[in-house]
């Protein structure tokens, strides 16, 4: 199948009507819309940015307006959905300014006034007070249609815009709280409410004015409401993958597995199916390349700043992100000035749920996929040291080449260049610190090391496989490199890899750190197969 026979991919499009009328590919999510509209009245959903929230809100908008012609051949038209027209108020809260409470409230009032003009409502909409503006528009729409729906997209954007100024952020949050309280006051006139955002400030009391709001973020039946499941990928994107595999002279099965490794892996709840990042997946199919599309679409400067603050508190464990554990309530615990790193990274999409213990009710978090892991680790390197991003990039490129060329001397030189820039007070007496830094570095350059690798007769610190060889690495702190190498040999860690038919390089790496000196030494031996 050639790419000219395939539907256009909606890479930068989140308007349902345009997508349908201009023959873009649409992954049918109308079953979820049906279940929401017919099964309740008030909902909140959080998902990472660029995950399809705005398109789903636009889909709800068209259903509630009864624009049935747009849904030809979709699931909802085959169902018993009653198609009752609503007056629809759709607000994208990423649009108003948030540099002050006044500018935010004026911006929302303008959005409400625009909706009144679109419907031709003969009313005066307040230009400064959100609650008064909302009252007038809701009551007028109810008088005309008998049913009103309120759809709010990116509700938390005004707060994130103002987080650099905590006082202003709290004022904006209070305005939002008052807005949601006003919605509660119009309960008799608003039949359906759907709110989306990246984060959940619910535990901070933001939604306390809406005590009947149903939070579906981690509910199993809505795990696939945004993003693509494996079944959807096979149903809608097989042609794109076939075309790509032909271009790359790669088997379809191999390319399909690589797409999964790079862009799948998000879990929104315990024991739920994994979903693909839709933005990255579609861009990969469009460009027929594996790149870091989602991560590269926005600079995570806010996240990096928060990680830097934690690290400067001597907490290097924040970089061991694949072992974060927390209770369910903590996944939604988020407040201005009080943002646990684990919660922040989960809600913004840099970590996902990888495990759940029913007995302890504890969730384990980890990286969702290869794209996020390598991209985030690359951004973390400047946090770990005082090197700038350009310098860490240069070290990373040279280090990858050195490993692939089995150049041990260059590897150690580059390790030293990184570690000497780590302030002395941030070094610890824990060997795990050095292990974590190197794990971060090697992940960032895409070498895919395995740490704490378990074999039948022990657990070795790190295994790293490149096309030319396999590295077995043991770390020691304030001990000799020779003792690390001896441990590998005495315990015969290499035996588990002899069947790979590759040379095996045994590396004992020792770190020596004092207030006046830092040294890395290595002892190595090659086992030929």
Task: Kindly summarize this structure in a few lines.
By secondary structure, the chain is an alpha/beta fold.
Write up this protein:
With 529 residues, the protein is of the alpha/beta class. It has 3 domains: 195 residues, Rossmann fold; 70 residues, no CATH class; 141 residues, 3-Layer(aba) Sandwich (Trna Endonuclease, Chain: A, domain 1). It has 20 helices and 13 strands. It has a 5-stranded parallel β-sheet, sandwiched between helices. A hairpin with a 2-residue loop joins strand 12 and strand 13. Helix 9 packs across helix 10 and helix 17 packs antiparallel against helix 18. The chain is elongated and about 85 Å long. The relative contact order is 0.08.
Number of helices: 20
How would you describe the shape? elongated
Total beta strands: 13
Average pLDDT number = 88
Strand order in the sheet with the most strands: 2-3-4-1-5
CATH architecture of the largest domain: 3-Layer(aba) Sandwich
What are the segments in which pLDDT stays under 50 over at least 5 consecutive residues? none
Tell me about the largest β-sheet.
5 strands, parallel
| Strand content bin | 15-25%
CATH superfamily of the largest domain: P-loop containing nucleotide triphosphate hydrolases
CATH class of the largest domain: Alpha Beta
Distance between the termini: 44 Å
